[in-house]
Design a protein that fits this description.
This protein has 211 residues and is an all-alpha fold. The protein has one domain. It is built from ten helices and no strands. The protein is globular and about 55 Å long.
Length: 211
């Protein structure tokens, strides 16, 4: 991966920016649909990448990880939400969180279709394959039930209230722990997170006829 040319690297960065933007937009749209206008008031109810990307987290950090550790890790601006505007606090928070990974899954399916419709165009197939893989990776990574990832809020739907609030209160600690695990895992070549998400990614790619 470290030997990628500039055109390929640019293509992959664009893929990353679009995937993050669609992911965050889906959170904003779902929150608005559930009665929380906070994302709309903050200008996040848009597909414009400039409203969603964090220049450090979406561009610089992935490049640093890529060229030092050979993996891609990054983040976009979190969508501002006020779950107290929801009709059902836990359920709607979980469904709003689920919207991001589901949207990435739908984007992966769309580009799998582009792959199959372009049998004579190696470039489109190559780009489509990467878009599918990255969106599946983003979806399944975010579904890990670790605060502050989306999966922790989806899990929260099924937790008793007291445990739910104790669990979601760990978001700041969870982010630091997750970052350290990714760093140590990459340095020691353990690929702990990859082992968790790679199997479902490969399964979906097989179902989409890409394996």
């Amino acid at each position: 991966m470290l030997g990628l040319g500039i055109p390929t690297l640019i293509t992959r960065l664009i893929t990353l920016v679009v995937a993050f933007s669609v992911h965050e937009f889906s959170h904003a749209w779902t929150a608005n649909a559930f009665g929380d206008s906070t994302p709309k008031n903050a200008g996040r109810l848009t597909l414009n990448p400039l409203k969603h990307i964090d220049w450090f987290g979406t561009v610089i950090l992935p490049l640093l990880f890529y060229y030092t550790l050979g993996v891609v890790y990054g983040y976009a601006k979190p969508v501002p939400l006020n779950p107290y505007n929801y009709r059902n606090f836990k359920r709607d928070t979980g469904l709003c969180a689920l919207a991001g990974p589901v949207t990435n899954l739908l984007l992966a399916i769309l580009f799998a279709l582009f792959f199959h419709l372009s049998p004579d165009n190696a470039y489109i197939q190559h780009v489509s394959l990467y878009v599918v893989f990255f969106n599946l990776m983003l979806a399944f990574f975010n579904l890990l039930p670790i605060p502050p990832l989306d999966g922790s809020k989806v899990l929260g739907i099924f937790l008793p209230d007291e445990l739910y609030f104790r669990w979601t209160a760990q978001e700041r600690k969870g982010m630091m722990i997750l970052f350290l695990v990714l760093m140590v895992s990459s340095l020691l070549r353990l690929n702990l997170v990859g082992r968790l998400v790679l199997k479902p990614i490969m399964l979906v790619m097989q179902l989409l006829g890409l394996q």
